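Lab notebook, bench 4. We co-purified these components, and the gel suggests they stay together. Before we commit to crystallization screens, I want a quick structural picture of the whole thing.
Request: model the full complex, all chains together.
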Amino acid sequence: MADEANKHEFRAEVRKVLNILTNSLYTNREIFLRELISNASDALDKLRFRSNRGETPIHNDLPLDIHIKVDKDKKILTISDTGVGMTDTELAENLGTIAHSGSENFLADFANEHQAEEAKDASNIIGRFGVGFYSVFMVADEVRVTSRPAFGEQATAYVWVSDGLGTYTLETTTAEEPKRGTSIEVHLKSTAEEFAHPFKIREIIQKHSAFIPFPIYVDDEQANTQPALWREPKSSVTQEQYQNFYKAMTFDSEDALSVQHIAVDVPVQFAALLFIPSRKQDIYGLDQDNWGLDLYSRRVLIQRKNRDVVPDFLGFMKGVVDVEDLPLNISRETLQENVLLQKIKQVIIKQTLGVLEKMCKDEPQNYEKFWEEHGRIFKLGYHDMTNHERISALFRFNSSSLPDGENGKILWTSLDEYMGRAKPGQKTFWFVQAQNREAARLNPHVEMFKKKGLEVFYFLDPIDEFALGQGGTYKDWNFKSVDTAEPDDLKDFPDVETEKTEDAATPLSDEDNAIFDAFVKYIKRELGDKVKEVRVSERLADSPAVFVSDKGISSNMEKFMKVMQKDDSVPVRDMEVNRDHALLRHMFSIFKADKEDSTLKEMVDSLYDYCLLLDGYVREPYLLADRIQNLLTKASTWYKTVRNLA
Ligand code: ADP
Ligand code: MG
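Here is the predicted assembly.
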């Protein structure tokens, strides 16, 4: 037993932290082992560093490793390393005061934290205060640290002992072990006996310390066998090793689509191993909980799925980032503000864009696969202003210029390719948001563009219009929805020759034109408040009628806003009718003969339904159904008569 002279008080702040650690934490206690192992690894690193610079440690033949012994009966864990060790002064300084990484405000924070319920998560607290070594008191009621310095004058070993309650003792020891370095005896509390099992210890090592660069033996069997591939020189790693690493890490059965091994020194020293999976991992591609890269500090895991080093639009990437100069005890809050991580993120963005650009050029089929699997997430990159142009250049869409793909496959084209095909003077990417190609093609607003031979992007993913349509630009071209186009917008582009001139309607006489105006007024009167205005269209070719936006926003956007405002009314829009369409001509003839004709009224009503349906709205489905069957009954009666059928 140590006499009074050897007994020391912990600093006040240490006592408080110890108090909380020993009394109020019970989840995630296993991280004490991560802390002790990383300290051991640091000590070995320091020894290696000094040896490399010419100093000779005692027992120079001892291997650099970590041994963990589990005494099941006595409930004692012993973690030994052959690293630099500590002198008596260092033991007192390093283990008697709060760790250097603790934040200055920690006392203030601590006071608040003390009240908080969430204080129960050990990693949270440890992270916030930087209490690395002290975390051992979550599981121990006595800790004996025996240390023999590897360099210097002091030949004897010292032993530091504490129950974590307020005092520690420090005295010399005649023990032979450790021959060099530090040995930590952890006397487990009765509530922490789960840690007195080698398999449990191995499991924790696998989880938190799998990539420590020194062998860790648990009862003489090595527990960490995975090399930290990202720390190896690129030339020494094979593609197969990379892919195996990827599969072990993600449980994916397929190879990754691309592998990136980054090792940079400037502006931040870090290594990363990044993978683009061949398949998206979740259906919507926007799974907010399941993305990020595993963040390491010199091979010790700091945080899984860290999102500070990778932007959301690269959220499909898997991998690890290992930073040289990041304190292990860094808190989540500090992580977010960490400028190192911001810089790493920028490097990762730039490099990944480079990888994708190269894939576009050299492996277009892989790029297509990438786009089909991850394009949806990648499109979130529209809000990265720094890399706007590079990101946009990687976007792909379907378009009116592309043929149908085989078996319904969607083909892709880029913004630059669109520009290459554009008409002289064109400065707008025209798009139509639609559910599929067929719907896009049948959209009446597209007709005017077809007439002029202008290409229209088919936005087939609901996110497209949000990503680009809203004031988006690329190389000072803007994006516009076709249904916000005014015929005036296209006046500089002449009509192109179209094949079908035969069934084109003959122009109306001046007199009929005047009567047609009256017919248009009649339609408006019949429809009443359901439409704002009815007019003759200049944009339609093949469709009889269409609703037109007067707010400069696309009908798709408008629909979205109505959903947001929980407004389920049908919109009141302007209606345009196609004077040259057969249906309108027929209705016009009826109108000229009998303005009170009841069938004509039904037709006007159905024409309105037709426009509504095109916009994706249905007004009173049973009435609509009734009108359809009414008209069909009439039509079939007339058809029978025409065909002289019985
Ligand atoms: P940190 O590792 O962030 O510095 P810790 O509380 O984990 O904080 O450790 C405090 C200090 O104690 C370390 O910086 C190191 O100087 C010393 N130390 C802890 N464990 C060992 C060890 N096994 N060998 C040598 N020194 C150690
Ligand atoms: Mg530490």
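The chain has 20 helices and 22 strands. Worth comparing against the SEC data before the next meeting. The first strand starts at residue 7 and ends at 9.
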